[in-house]
Amino acid sequence: MNNILNWPDYKVLQVSELEHDYQVRAEVAEAPTHCPHCNHSEIVGFGRRDEVIMDTPVNGKRTGIMLNRRRYRCQSCRKTFMEPVPHKDDKRRMTHRLIKYIERESLQRTFLGVAEDVGVHEKTVRNIFNDYCERLENLGLSNSTPGTRRLLRLAAAAKRNK
Ligand SMILES: [Zn+2]
User: Fold this and answer.
1) For residue 93, which of 101, 81, 85 has the smallest C-alpha distance?
2) How far is the CA of 70 from the centre of ligand 1 (A)?
3) What is the CA radius of gyration of the chain?
4) d(Cα 155, Cα 107) in Å, to the nearest integer?
5) How does residue 147 score in pLDDT terms, banded at 50, 70 and 90?
6) pLDDT tens figures, 114-123
7) How would residue 1 be classed by pLDDT, with cut points 50, 70 and 90?
8) Dist. CA 160–CA 15, nearest whole Å
9) Closest CA to 6 of 32, 26, 21, 34
């Protein structure tokens, strides 16, 4: 794979390297083929919208993907929809791998340090970490492997220190 994101389902148009950031202009490579509302295949372009989603740091620099996202209208049901974005979290404007990264880093470092490192708000880091702890705790009851127990201990210690 030969683009900075390492994803063939993104088409990278331009990469700008700033002092502390990479700005990656990109598009989703594959256009959708069906309407998500009625499954009809006759869909037409209906404008675009710029959206920024944050990704894991590259070479120690914060990395934002400037996505030019397409909008479509279905010729059958007339509803519009945005193209789906692969690797993006449903809830947050960031990639799945950034969420994993924040979860891991938050075990070792302060929320503020992680937030500055990846370019999101400290509160967002805290929310992601709390979601993660909750998930670990739920997992802890049903699936008490040594690995889970270790993560639970780390998460509890990290929570106490913040
Ligand atoms: Zn439709």
Assistant:
1) 85
2) 16
3) 19
4) 6
5) confident
6) 999 999 999 9
7) very low
8) 40
9) 26
State how far the Cα of 124 lies from the Cα of 22, in Å rounded to an integer.
Answer: 20
Single-letter residue type at 62: R
Q: Which residue has the tokens 């148009």?
A: 13
Ligand 1 geometric centre to CA of 80 (Å): 8
Which is higher by pLDDT, 146 or 71? 71
57 three-state secondary structure? strand
Give the model confidence (pLDDT) of 4-46 as tens digits: 899 999 999 999 999 999 999 999 999 999 999 999 999 999 9
Q: Which residues of 124-148 are buried (b: 16+ CB within 10 A; e: fewer)?
A: bbbbbbeebbeebeeeeeeeeeeeb
State the distance from the centre of ligand 1 to the C-alpha of 27, rounded, in angstroms. Answer: 23
